[in-house]
Write a structure and sequence with these properties.
There is one protein chain. This protein is of the alpha+beta class. It contains 11 helices and 5 strands, in the order αβββββαααααααααα. The chain has a 5-stranded antiparallel sheet with strand order 3-2-1-4-5, with no helix packed on it. α3 packs antiparallel against α4.
């Protein structure tokens, strides 16, 4: 049977899902105003994004790109669903001015986003992407439903902690960086807040949670210091990011791109760091519950034995996660024939290496840090309990 608190959290989760439905699905429809809605006309060179639906494929075939390679193309008739051109039909060509693949071909009924660019000789239209709102929302609902179904009250609290984490990232970390604050300090402060709130929300105000949070904070600070040291030592600039030029153009040359690399390393290690620190603390308190005669040294040695297995799995997981996320980049550099040492010295590759190794170092350090803190705290609790029993019996 679920406790009243668990029912409260599950009810709150359901309310959040309903609110998400209203925000994502209903409000945009209310805001479109239907076919009669209108917006101020755009000046030449300005651009707007309009949702549209594919009505008909007017023409389809393939074009020669030269060098014996071809690609498909389409000429499509679209109906603009909302915005300044709501209700109008426009023709758009795909594959004649941009690179596409078979997966990019459209069918009648597909919903897309269209870029309208105004000019002195008239408007030009380009399809920017598919509209993916509905499937993304459904998979999010499926994920949340399975977490609650399997995890019950603890799963619901973890979802709430995840939502709070997103609020910290989008409500604190990113806005503070945009305002010009130091990305490293902001990411460390936001990470500590995020992990502390989510950990206490899921595991309660318990000694296990205290040990996990202190271990996370210590590991985060050390990870930040290591990131600062090695990013500076390897002379990473942050200019290898695709978004760098856009950020400099929008936020000015004062944006700290190297700090963004450092902050990304810190935030990127949070998920696995949370797992390791909570796992180490849980293991120590389970050991002391099974044998109250273990001193803190024995608890610490046992936690290290458990942590070694955890490290082996987690470092491998982190490495594969970074490599998987950078697979297209890895393929590009594999194509070019050059010595391996020249290849790894290129900033995009070097950045991923530093990101992976510094994040892994932080995880490795989290095992002894959290294990030691949890062992000392558990041993102190046992001693206090024994002292209290003696005082009561006297």
């Amino acid at each position: 049977m679920m406790s009243q608190l668990e029912r409260f959290f599950i009810a709150g989760l359901v309310a959040l899902v309903i609110l998400a439905v209203v925000i994502i699905v209903i409000l945009p429809q209310l805001g479109t105003g239907g076919p009669e809605s209108s917006q101020p006309s755009l000046a030449p060179g300005e651009m707007e994004t309009l949702p549209a639906r594919v009505i008909e494929v007017l023409e389809e075939g393939s074009i020669d790109l030269g060098g014996g390679s071809t690609q498909p193309y389409q000429r499509l008739l679209l109906l603009i669903e909302s915005g300044s051109l709501a209700g109008q039909e426009v023709e758009v060509e795909e594959g004649t001015v941009n690179i596409i693949s078979q997966e990019r071909l459209f069918r009648p009924g597909d919903r897309v986003y269209v870029q309208r660019v105004t000019g002195l000789d008239g408007d030009r239209f380009y399809i920017s992407d598919f509209v993916r709102t509905t499937p993304l929302f459904l998979i999010a609902v499926l994920f949340m439903g399975m977490v609650v179904l399997v995890g019950r009250g603890k799963g619901a609290r973890s979802l709430l902690g995840t939502l709070i984490g997103l609020m910290v990232i989008f409500g604190f970390i990113l806005p503070q960086i945009v305002k010009g604050r130091d990305p490293v300090g902001v990411c460390i402060a936001g990470s500590i807040l995020l992990l502390s709130v989510s950990t206490y929300l899921v595991y309660g105000w318990t000694p296990k949670a205290h040990a996990a949070v202190v271990g996370m904070v210590g590991s985060l600070v050390l990870t930040g210091l290591l990131a600062w040291l090695f990013v500076g030592w390897t002379r990473l600039t942050g200019l290898s990011m695709e978004e760098s030029s856009y950020l400099v153009m929008e936020l000015g040359s004062g944006i700290n791109l190297r700090g963004l690399v450092l902050g990304g390393i810190i935030v990127g290690s949070l998920g696995v760091l949370d797992d390791i620190c909570v796992g180490q603390a849980s293991a120590v308190f389970e050991l002391v519950n099974a044998n109250r005669d273990l001193d803190w040294r024995a608890l610490f040695r046992s936690s290290l034995n458990i942590g070694r297995d955890h490290i082996a799995a987690m470092v491998n997981t982190l490495l594969l996660a970074y490599v998987g996320a950078s697979m297209p980049l890895m393929l590009v550099f594999t194509i070019y024939q050059e010595p391996i040492w020249q290849r790894v010295n290129r900033e995009p590759i070097a950045e991923e290496i530093v990101r992976t190794l510094v994040g892994s170092l932080g995880l490795i350090l989290a095992v002894p840090i959290t294990g030691l803190i949890a062992s000392l705290l558990a041993h102190w609790m046992v001693r206090r309990e024994k002292t209290d029993r003696k005082a009561i019996s006297m």
